[in-house]
């Protein structure tokens, strides 16, 4: 019945002859503005989540975790730019025993302090109008910073709300400075050097070896052909079978966008459950807001605009990329964002009986796109809910959506990384965790159309007639486009370039 309704709703598109001769993938943008409610709260919109064995030389005993927030940042987006929400709770969760529940949570809270820079104008001290800066900036909490943004890190063992809590520190205290965004080269002549001063040591309670932490603006590492995709799937070359250069045939519409990254590099041993003896961990990121908000009709200062209170309510969730975009139905997208992995049985039909492959076949079947025929789609259950057996499936697992990483698989140096990860023989890449250089759009397109069946992972080659086709959105990504050391993501684009 679902497929019959789908065919009826799209019949008008076919009749209007809106489709090209070749088939193409549907719209996707990792988790940039993926659900209706989250579009109203961009500061807590998680865009991408990464988890991988560190491949910086000498750091292979560490695992890097990156949670990106606040999508589609224009470099020139002043005067407020893109500070984090001080009334929100940002969290990174780790499940180290496969039960779908967090065993370790890193909580980040932010604070904005208006230093109220003033000029003497005609004998009166008057506050300057610039929000972020009032002079040259070269280090943390520089004199030229008008709005200081800081954060704290709390480590929770067990349940995120009822577990054991302890503050992390950097040796000098429990408050960390976040660099201001890359407003331009006059205020911050060398932004890379300035941001590097904000990479700090992090002492995690119960972990003998220090971790590292960085929170700040970065160049958005995700690549995607948004414009053509949303224009009635107007991609010119959706597979290399039609054009050998298809994988580089389209524009990356995020090429001029920045994002805010919350980054940790943690000793891998401190993430594992020693008693479980399992090298596989799962991870995801969430953001929560207070249940109630009162807006002050007559604020006396920028700190008096509203009052937040009540319990924390989760409004954003992200583990593996593209799940809420191309797997979860529209009516459940906000529900997914508010849910926990342990309760993901409620979304099982979207994985076992996905609509995306049927949609691709309906639109472009005459060009060779055929949806896999194995139901339930056990290959997608492995990719999204349990991990792939023999690769990144825990010894004991409750089906639940998250990014899973087998920490016993050695990292691969950037020059040797394969952008298509596991489906191209690089088991250190997606879906075994996710590195910034993994082209997850192309990987996901091929997996949903049955690539794992061609590898006899959860299904047979005969189940996926189009499983061997090289689907692509045309926006290319590999490790050469990412830095080779922590914090890995490249320096953000400057709002005012060098003259």
Structural description of this entry:
The protein is 14% helix and 24% strand. Residues 1-28 have low confidence and may be disordered. The radius of gyration is 23 Å and the shape is globular. The protein has 499 residues and is α+β, with helices and mostly antiparallel strands. It is built from ten helices and 15 strands. A hairpin with an 8-residue loop joins strand 10 (200-202) and strand 11. Strands 3, 4, 7, 8, 9, 13, 14 and 15 form an eight-stranded antiparallel beta sheet that branches. A five-stranded antiparallel beta sheet has the order 1-2-12-11-10, with no helix packed on it. The chain has a two-stranded antiparallel ribbon with strand order 5-6. It has helices spanning 2-15, 191-196, 226-230, 323-326, 333-337, 348-352, 356-364, 378-386, 440-448, 451-454; strands at residues 46-53, 62-74, 88-95, 104-114, 118-121, 124-127, 147-157, 164-167, 176-177, 200-202, 211-219, 257-267, 280-295, 306-318, 403-406.
